[in-house]
Amino acid sequence: SQQGEEDPQALSIQEGENATMNCSYKTSINNLQWYRQNSGRGLVHLILIRSNEREKHSGRLRVTLDTSKKSSSLLITASRAADTASYFCATDPNDYKLSFGAGTTVTVRA
Amino acid sequence: DVKVTQSSRYLVKRTGEKVFLECVQDMDHENMFWYRQDPGLGLRLIYFSYDVKMKEKGDIPEGYSVSREKKERFSLILESASTNQTSMYLCASSFKGGGAGSTDTQYFGPGTRLTVL
Predict the structure, then answer these.
(1) Does any CB of chain A come closer than 8 Å to the CB of residue B95?
(2) CB B103 to CB A31 under 8 A?
(3) Which residue in A has a C-alpha nearest to residue B57's C-alpha?
(4) Does position A5 have pLDDT exceeding 90, yes or no?
(5) What is the pLDDT of residues B7-56, one digit of tens each?
(6) Given an 8 Å threshold on Cβ–Cβ distance, is B42 in contact with A45?
(7) How far apart (Å, rounded) are the C-alpha atoms in residues A88 and B34?
(8) Deepest of A23, A85, B31, B81, by most Cβ within 10 A of its Cβ?
């Protein structure tokens, strides 16, 4: 069963702009992860944020986590054409397993 | 470098055929997973394995079985393929983690797009 839900479903931005997407989940978590999927390919891990962390950075990525609201956001700054992909949040409601949302499709226009 | 490989990128099978999807990882991971991905539904877990010869059902195991005879290999079997099993199938692996409540990063293969006619 899906625990995470991303919002918006789709996002179109100009190259150089920032892209923000959100994830909401239902039950308590140990950590939350974000993954990227390029068209027709497997998922690639981007960043993991633990439940006791509020913000984390990795290159042009910034992730926030608000456990009181059961939500997370992913910000991609200074977007590039190569950032065109689907982005998924994943939570861990059970040991070993992750629950993925349906994803946000991001299109970066040149 | 971490690597998860899947036996085929594209596969076309006929209704009723027995289908084998193979996944191999070279990272000595304990956990392996099979997902299917359909538009608008995200990734849904079919089966996972946390050790050799061990398996657990995921959210949608009906119509599927799995085999894990060796640590590096996890096979998904469609006993009698049906058209509603047309989908993208993704294999993933991860370390067992730091104990209860610790879930590690999953590493994904490139996916197999299966079409059942």
Answers:
(1) no
(2) yes
(3) A97
(4) no
(5) 999 999 999 999 999 999 999 999 999 999 998 888 999 999 988 989 99
(6) no
(7) 17
(8) A23
Q: The tokens 């079985």 sit on which residue?
A: B65
- Pairwise CB contact (< 8 Å): A95 & B48: no
Closest CA to B46 of B89, B11, B14, B83: B89
How confident is residue B102, by pLDDT bands cut at 50, 70 and 90?
A: low
Write out the two tokens for B52: 């050799």
Tell me the nearest-neighbour CA distance from B30 into chain A, angstroms.
10
> What percentage of chain A carries pLDDT values higher than 90?
73
Taking contacts as CB-CB distances below 8 angstroms, the residues of chain B near A48 are 105
Inter-CA distances, B34 with A30, B24, B46, B91, Å: 22, 12, 6, 5
Q: Do B108 and A2 touch (CB under 8 A)?
A: no
Residue A49 CA to residue A56 CA, distance in Å, equals: 7
Q: Spell out where chain A has E strands.
A: 5-7, 10-14, 19-24, 31-37, 43-50, 55-58, 61-66, 71-76, 85-91, 99-100, 104-109
CA distance A38 to chain B (A): 10
Is residue B100 pLDDT above 70, yes or no?
A: no
Mutate: best of A28, A47, A98, A99, partner B, most B CBs <10 A? A98
CA-to-CA separations, B7 to B10, B23, B53, B96, in angstroms, rounded? 9, 6, 20, 24
